Structures are given as structure tokens and as C-alpha cells.
Amino acid sequence: MEAFDKLMLDYVLRKLTDLFEEIVLVSKEPSSPVTSGIMGLGQSSRRLPVWLSRLRRSDPYLVTDILIDQMHVTRKQNRDLRFEAQNALLNALVEDGVALHIASYSVAVVEKRLKCFLNNSPHT
User: Which of helix, strand or coil describes residue 31?
Assistant: First the structure.
């Protein structure tokens, strides 16, 4: 079940990033208000409650981990607008308690790595 959960989280985070990317793009256009761009998102905005519900049922560490992996790929592809959208999404998810703050995430990663290292030590 964990593989399916990761796959679903990956999908949901990609879709939310698409939505945030549209919002960031529209917000940069001086001639049109942000609300008109959001209203034009249609299907994506209707799916938003479903996606958020999925995220709220997920482990915040896993949400953060998957989104950061996606951010690494985006950065390698030099997709600045998408990276900006992912950063905004991460901040919103942290604020909502759905994802971990980057400092908390970093501590969790280090703890997992140390635990793995210590569990494999021949002296334990």
C-alpha cells in the first residue's frame, strides 16, 4: 500500500503544482487580476478539495519528501516558474500543517540516516 500512497501523493503534488504555477503566472501579469486566472482554472479548482483531503491523510514527512524530490527535478530542468510555484506550495502546505518545515524535514532526514547507520553497526 505504501507504493500506491507514494504514487498518489506524487500525482496530487504535481496537480497542485500545476495549479500554483497558473496562479504564479497570472499574478505576474500586470493587466489581469489574479482572481480571473483562478476562475479560469475550472477542473483543477474543483478537484482541489479532493487533493487537499488526500494530503491531510498523509504523513507530513512523506508529503515534504516527495515535493522536495519534485523540486530537485524542476531545478535540474531550469523551470524557474514551476520551482517558484513549488516553493509557494511547500510554504502553503507547511502553514496548513500538511508538510514539514524545511528545518524539521532536515532533522528527520538526518535522524533516519543515523538510525540506519547505527542499526547496521557491528558494535550494536
Answer: coil
Query: How many whole angstroms separate alpha carbon 120 and alpha carbon 53?
Result: 38
Distance CA 67, CA 21 (A): 14
How far is it, in rounded angstroms, from Cα 71 to Cα 91?
13
Q: Are 88 and 28 in contact (CB under 8 A)?
A: no
Return the amino acid letter for 31: S
Q: What is the phi/psi pair of residue 93, to 5°? A: -70, -35
As a whole number of angstroms, the distance between CA 116 and CA 113 comes to 5
Residue with cell 515535493: 67
83-124 pLDDT tens trace? 999 999 999 999 999 999 999 999 988 888 888 777 765 654
Q: Hey, what's the cell of 7?
A: 504514487
Q: Report pTM.
A: 0.80
SS3 (DSSP) at 72: helix
Q: How far apart are CA 64 and CA 26, in angstroms?
A: 25
